[in-house]
Amino acid sequence: MKVVRVCGGFGNQLFQYAFYLAVKHKFNETTKLDIHDMASYELHNGYELERIFNLNESYCSTEEKLSVQSTKNIFTKFVKEIKKYTPFISRTYIKEKKHLHFSYQEVDLGTKDTSIYYRGSWQNPQYFNSIASEIREKLTFPEFTEPKSLALRQEISEYETVAVHIRRGDYLKHKALGGICDLPYYQNAIKEIEGLVEKPLFVIFSDDITWCRANIKVDNVRFVDWNSGEQSFQDMHLMSLCTHNIIANSSFSWWGAWLNANPNKIVISPDKWIHYTDAMGIVPNEWLKVSTSA
């Protein structure tokens, strides 16, 4: 049995789910999701994948969950394997090097017929590029019911649109991710896209639309301010329907662009994702990287 831990917000859950599908595809044996930690996760909207996508996946029970004791000084390499013998006959624990580590590593995912627990964010598309079509098929959003979203979807289908995702909120004081995608980045990104796309319609998504209205100065624009709480995922759905994307250094933003099925899409990403390390492995090579500096 293989078990993949799920924890974090919606974007993080999507990366872990994509990794889970890749593991399941690689070994073609029983693979389960561990969502136990979501019961105590108080940020965002809890475990969202099943509610949104109506998934039919297997979840490990408390008894099946690997009871591995870990401390900060145990894992000194990218992964550390700890062999245990209960509750499984043979067990391996595979953990990413550290939180917010986005570089792809040739991780030995173990062998068939060995019980393995995977704990990490797995935020690099190289882990699951080989099954991209299967992931997109699984991640089919439900139909819109909100009249404003229905109207915007129609408008998106009629114009060349650019989804712009601006994350503020918890990022304003975030030591690792905050202060990167500020106004200079969006000004640079908008200038870049305007040089590539003629008279686009900008569609702005944010957790601080008031700030966006005051600072994002473009001629043709729509501000999306009606999706919140358990309906926040509708922003990602709408972003994925736009022609092009300008993203923040956010997993939510990343998936809005990755799920965009337009084969000719232009995706603009910041040239810096995190403060203390090179984490640009999360950004696909074909996406454009724009300076975050003025």
UniProtKB/TrEMBL annotation:
<keyword id="KW-0328">Glycosyltransferase</keyword>
<dbReference type="GO" id="GO:0008107">
    <property type="term" value="F:galactoside 2-alpha-L-fucosyltransferase activity"/>
</dbReference>
<keyword id="KW-0808">Transferase</keyword>
<dbReference type="GO" id="GO:0016020">
    <property type="term" value="C:membrane"/>
</dbReference>
<dbReference type="InterPro" id="IPR002516">
    <property type="entry name" value="Glyco_trans_11"/>
</dbReference>
<dbReference type="GO" id="GO:0005975">
    <property type="term" value="P:carbohydrate metabolic process"/>
</dbReference>
<dbReference type="Pfam" id="PF01531">
    <property type="entry name" value="Glyco_transf_11"/>
</dbReference>
<protein>
    <submittedName>
        <fullName>Alpha-1,2-fucosyltransferase</fullName>
    </submittedName>
</protein>
